[in-house]
Amino acid sequence: MTSQSSTVPLRWLTLAITMLVTSLGLGGCMLFGGLHADAIAHTAERPANVAVYLSVRDGKDPVTDLAADNFHLSENGQPLGSGDTNLTLLDRRAVAEHRVLLLVDISTAKDAGARRQLARGVAGFVESVKKQQAVTLFAFDGRAEPIFVAEYPQGDGEKVEQVQALEAQTPQDPSRNLHGAAMHAIKQLDARLLSAKKPIRIGTLVIFAAGPDLAARVTREEVEEKIRNSPHHVLTVIVANEEQDADLGDLAKDGLHRAPSVQMAGIGLDEAARRVNALEQQYYLLSYCSPARAGARRLTIDVKRTTLEGSEQSASANVDFDATGFGPGCDSSRVPRFASGTTPVPVQGEDPDKPEGTAPKDPGPQKPSGDKPPAKDPDEAAPPPDLPGYAPLPGK
User: Fold this and answer.
1) CB-side exposure of 67: number of CA atoms within 13 Å?
2) Reading across the β-sheet that carries 78-80, which strands appear in turn?
3) Are 235 and 272 in contact (CB under 8 A)?
């Protein structure tokens, strides 16, 4: 009797090794899941206000359903009751600028029908994401730099049904400069965040690629290092099969999604939009009134939740602050004042004051279109979401 061969195809073995290394690169614990809490920024102000900007993940998945009673505080090891601290969740947008840059491959969208379908898929992504975050749109083919398409300010505004400016972009170079476009997009996202007036700045780059890099203007190692060292979230939507995943997966440290074709890009972009929204919702702005009145304090935030499967999870984050001069009169619903540039975004090798690195400003209520950056960048805090545990802004 002959035995059936159990040899694993080389491409599947390569893909498995790539996924394992990527998971370990994100932290060994990410491979096996588990709750993780990270303090992004914190501040302590008189009379006794303490606030922390916190992210919470279950493995690599954002945790988006927490309420105030999921967070438990202690100072210098002494547990603090919720009645003693008036712990409150404030609207994250009061202090944080979350911004998305969508980089779209038009190298294979050579006919009007393909561009029209691609533009519709992009419009669905923009419509979903811009409710919470501003969206910048760039397109690329084989040219040295991507082309600016449109800017969409955060807010409901006019419904985006079609991105006409993208539909009008015909490919000029049939090659594909994926690596170079990604490097340039990171610089553009850096510059936009540096121009934001809110103290906490978090960016997300989403790349739609019809295939691997063909131009070889930038090496794969260079772009992978750039993405790995970037503070931004990076997701990739690919028109590819399993054989190409290993080549493009390293450009997707926060999520890899697939579309069957360029004309059906909306399938992958819809999945990416849901992921982008969840990444933004994993951040929580905690505010409370400290009972301390002097001295150095170590705040421990214990996060506890029950999963849909019924298992209990917990994680902790620590921050240190000085309670010297603290006293009565604290209001935890007050918007905290973080130091400007609490989460600075490095722009390596580029002067943000130069025109190339300067973000085009938002167009206000006008519908974004054309090839030039619009003109105004609003900075006012958005109203808090209608969710349990979120306090309204003062005076609202």
Assistant:
1) 7
2) 78-80, 71-75, 296-306, 312-322
3) yes
Model pLDDT, residue 381? 43
The C-alpha atoms of residue 73 and residue 330 are separated, in whole angstroms, by 17
| Exposure on the CB side of residue 77, measured as CA atoms within 13 A | 0
Q: Are 152 and 368 in contact (CB under 8 A)?
A: yes
Backbone angles phi, psi at 323, to 5 degrees: -95, 15
Is residue 205 a contact partner of residue 185, using CB atoms and an 8 Å limit?
Answer: yes
Residue 45: helix, strand or coil by DSSP? Answer: strand
C-alpha span between 277 and 296 (Å, rounded): 37
- pTM to 2 decimal places: 0.78
Separation of alpha carbons 100 and 189, rounded Å: 8
pLDDT digits (tens, 9 = 90+) for 230-241: 999 999 999 976
Q: List, for residues 8-41, the tens digit of each pLDDT value.
A: 444 444 444 444 444 443 333 444 469 999 999 9
Residue 293 · residue 323 · CB < 8 Å: yes
Query: Which of 172-176, 216-220, 371-375 bottoms out in mean pLDDT, i.e. has the lowest?
Result: 371-375
Q: Quick one: CA dihedral 333, 203, 58, 130, positive or negative?
A: positive
Per-residue H/E/C for 60-94: CEECCCCCHHHEEEEECCEEECHHHHCCEEECHHH
Question: What is the reported pLDDT for 336?
Answer: 97
Collapse the DSSP code of 374 into the 3-class scheme (helix H, G, I; strand E, B; otherwise coil) and give the result: coil
Alpha carbon of 231 to those of 6, 51, 80, 204, 338: distances in Å? 42, 22, 33, 9, 19
